[in-house]
Design goal:
InterPro entries (chain B): Ribosomal_uS3m
GO cellular component, one term (chain B): ribosome
Family (chain B): Belongs to the universal ribosomal protein uS3 family.
CATH architecture of chain B: 2-Layer Sandwich
Strand content of chain B: 15-25%
Protein name (chain B): Ribosomal protein S24
CATH superfamily of chain B: Cation efflux protein, cytoplasmic domain
Strand order of the largest sheet of chain B: 2-3-4-5
Structural class of chain A: alpha+beta
Number of domains of chain B: 1
Subcellular location (chain B): Mitochondrion
Helix content of chain A: 25-40%
Oligomer: heterodimer
CATH class of chain B: Alpha Beta
Structural class of chain B: alpha/beta
Order of helices and strands of chain A: HHEHEEHEH
Order of helices and strands of chain B: HEHEHEEHEE
Radius of gyration of chain B: 19 Å
CATH topology of chain B: Alpha-Beta Plaits
Radius of gyration of chain A: 28 Å
């Protein structure tokens, strides 16, 4: 029975763990050329206030951002006859408008992007949907870079 | 906007149903009342209480009148789970109306349901009678939150505010 002091046993790591720690290099951070936020909602005022919040947050964090772009609203219309019988001339008009606004943020790294996007998505108000589009810069695949 | 889309869908189905039914049978479909929805008839002695939201006519929606349930399922390109959300809203309203029978204001129509992410927030006013049993109310709140969260499989938070009497919410009397 070998008597190995506990201190020595604890210090010596496992062989597999050693190889993994030395070979695994930190992955280079992703680079984003542009991240576009498109916000859709039924209420113009809510979207406007959310966009001012987005711009002020980016300003405080020293992130480059573009101006807010207002896109034309998308309209869904349906009419119903007002009367039970006849009178085609008189209808009830129902419509739903989806207002759209766009804003983009450019030249940021992956870590900044993930925190920023998560923060902005947590603050999205109710009744508003957000769509995020990425333009990522990545290296050419090996087949192309070797040639 | 939920009500308008639901009305539109049911109206088209209603026309289809009535064409197939023979002349001698009775129609049992619920009347749409699209011409009278959201409007309140005046009383002779001005006893009908109206809150600000109720007093605005439907053509003011989006201008002076806001919606009672806020979700993103009516937006273009975001319509993944419209019927689920509609059903959930109905379930929540009926549950609150039935669980707080003495406490609801104006027949339980004054509830605002908001959805932020996965969480459903139920906001509104409840009235308490002169005997305010705080322990009972806390228990009922907790039970309602737990029950709705388990039922809808989403975190549900109640943000109901208590008011002494529903006359406090009055905007005008018609």
């Amino acid at each position: 029975m070998l008597r190995i002091p506990r201190s020595l046993l604890q210090i010596r790591p496992l062989a597999t763990q050693l190889t993994q720690s030395t070979s695994a290099q930190p992955k280079p951070d992703k680079l984003f050329k542009k991240i576009e936020f498109e916000v859709r909602g039924h209420d113009k005022a809510v979207l406007k206030s959310y966009m001012t919040f987005v711009q002020s947050a980016c300003g405080h964090l020293d992130i480059n951002y573009t101006e807010v772009e207002n896109l034309p609203y998308v309209r869904w219309v349906e009419w119903l006859l007002r009367s039970k019988f006849v009178h085609k001339k008189y209808k009830l008009h129902y419509e739903t408008r989806t207002y759209i606004k766009k804003c983009s943020v450019y030249y940021i790294t992956g870590s900044t992007a993930s925190t920023l996007v998560e923060y902005l998505q947590r603050q999205v108000p109710e009744g508003v949907g957000m769509k995020v589009t990425y333009n990522e810069i990545c290296a050419f695949p090996e087949t192309m870079s070797n040639k | 906007m939920n009500i308008t889309t639901a009305l539109a869908n049911t109206s088209s189905r209603l026309y289809a149903c009535t064409s197939q039914i023979s002349q001698r049978s009775i129609t049992t479909t619920i009347p749409l009342c699209k011409n009278r929805a959201g409007k309140h008839r005046a009383t002779i002695d001005r006893t009908r209480l109206l809150t600000y939201e109720m007093s605005q006519k439907p053509h003011h929606i989006g201008v002076r009148k806001a919606w009672l349930s806020w979700h993103s399922q009516n937006l273009e390109e975001f319509r993944q789970s419209q019927p689920i959300v509609l059903a959930q809203d109905e379930v929540i309203r009926r549950f609150i109306r039935g669980f707080f029978p003495q406490n609801i204001t104006i027949n339980g129509t004054e509830l605002v349901i908001k959805r932020r992410g996965n969480v459903v927030y139920v906001t509104g006013f409840l009235q308490h009678s002169k005997r305010l049993d705080i322990r009972r109310i806390y228990w009922m709140f907790g039970f309602a939150e737990e029950f709705l969260s388990l039922l809808l499989k989403q975190p549900v938070k109640l943000e109901l505010q208590f008011v002494t009497n529903e006359t406090v919410l009055a905007y005008n009397y018609i």
